[in-house]
Amino acid sequence: MAGAADCGSVKMAEAERSAETLKEKANNYFKEKDYENAIKYYSEAVELNPDNAIYYGNRSLAYLRTECYGYALADATLALELDKNYIKGYYRRATSNMALGKFKAALKDYETVVKVRPNDKDAKLKYQECSKIVKQKAFERAIASDELKRSVVDSLDIESMTIEEDYSGPKLDEGGKITMKFMKEMMSWFKGQKKLHRKCAYQILVQVKELLSKLPSLVEITLKETETITICGDTHGQFYDLLNIFELNGLPSETNPYLFNGDFVDRGSFSVEVILTLFGFKLLFPDCFYLLRGNHETDNMNQMYGFEGEVKAKYTAQMFELFSEVFQWLPLAQSINGKVLVMHGGLFSEDGVTLDDLRKINRNRQPPDSGPMCDLLWSDPQAPDGRSVSKRGVSCQFGPDVTKRFLEQNQLDYIIRSHEMKSEGYEVTHNGQCITVFSAPNYCDQMGNKGAYIHLRGSDLKPEFHQFAAVPHPNVKPMAYANSLMQMGMM
To answer: What's the maximum distance between 2 C-alpha atoms anywhere in the chain?
Structure first.
């Protein structure tokens, strides 16, 4: 009996040593920012030694870096179940909850750390910052319950805003009309890291709000046989890469239509420049330049990932409020020739959703936690059939069978979505019925991925992929304007 017990102990010790070796391997991949391999080897370490809280904690951080907040939250929780004194576990769980907009849950974990480490300045700072957000959210909810909330537009007096004599940048004419000359001047001005005058920015926002508010939630267009549209995925505040797309593929025009599929802002620190450029082209070419809402065109994401901070730094809190109003009017999906459906996230948590259901969505709001509007912005495809819990902690993951049923019911050929970084800039899955396109190369200055855009011709609707590499940008790091808790929590 003793021999068998000794043998078991030896095997256990061997498994623990092997698990440590795998953890070190994973740590090295993590340092190289190869998070997929880091996750793979942390997972193998967990299989060999499922009782080590550190493995779950490390994998949780790798999941945070790849935006799999649901998985990150689950791992941090498992780590704390194994060792309630594992301080990093509280930090990881708090960061996951922050990323998911669950600020009260995050505050609870920061509170625990402060109690355990009363002299820890970092813990105190995070607790105070999170507490501030919880109070701010409560205040916002109280205001939102007042149904007569006025639009920022009602309190603006754009006419009386004066443009100072020393401002030498682009200006709109007296009627506030956008021209190609203005667009070229504005992009050049932005390229030199200069700020558009606030009067011009407000003029663009007021006009684009009016234009978007007249559009349906599902935009339906028909390409003629000879026409080609360019579809771009996430741009995430990477203005210099946006300029590169236009350099490679031509400026938007009536003969060179574009569709940008959400997530124009956040993370990249030139989000204001990206969104004003896109809104400008929308106004210049309302019938051949299309914009769809992404999960980052929402208040919670903007508060955490930089856009709110950037607008406040470059302009004012009032201007951010107006951006928020405009984002709520962005359409949620677009069909092309009744055969291709484009949306930012993906398909639905339940079968039976029709295009008519999408047409009926009341989109002028912050997205709910579930339902078709939430799914359009948040869901992701998966390889196995069926559905599973989302790695992000919001919406779901959907398999090839789900895609096939949806397409058959709605007489569509395939879907195009974005929402996920892909190393080649695009990915074709679900037997060619689900295409992902992502247009932010070297995402966050660290992922090393290519960017891509798609050409779709009216004659055959066959996707043609074009890849491109990142271009240099001024030395302003991604997340420069992000909430300090997100910056610290990702370390």
So the answer is: 94
